[in-house]
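Example 3.2
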Amino acid sequence: MKLIARRSFPKAIIVSDRFHVQKLASDAVQEQRIKYRWEAIEQENQERQIAKETDQSFKPHILENSGTSKQLLARSRYLLFKSPANWTSIQNHRAEILFDRYLLLKSAYELSQKLVDVFNRKTTKEIAYKKLALWYNAVENAGFKSFNVIANTTKQNYNQILNYFNNRSTNASAESFNTKVKALRRQFRGVSNTSFFLYRLAMIYA
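Structure, written as tokens:
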């Protein structure tokens, strides 16, 4: 894609979409949540087996929000995508219990939100560069393997990521056009003649 952009639009400035960068951080948070959930499921299975072997009725540990640990981790998926300002009262209470029990998950979530904050602030490219550098330091101190991968990826593409702060450009218009192309393709039930399809596309949208 970069080669196509350089050849077709040699004077264009390439921008890495901020939402793709943020998604990597969100995925790292969810990875930590899923890890804890598997551990909670395994622990409950072991406790259930022990209760069975000792001929006792199994009673799972109930948290303050009337749910078990595995339920807490399953129901916390969506709140971890949001900023605390957008949490509902139920999500706020759930996050309180979650972060009190799982400190590493809290650290991962805070790292993700710090990265989002870099993009949300209306700063210059130079200030954003300094803030990204501080975020790299926070990632190194946290010691998360998945976040280290994200940090290395952003380091290799930092120029394109920072180009976002020139005009705060995203690929929203490209995604919108891509949706139109897919809709046109569906209308013809596939493409048998590529040249004619591209001609029709140019006539309608050019």
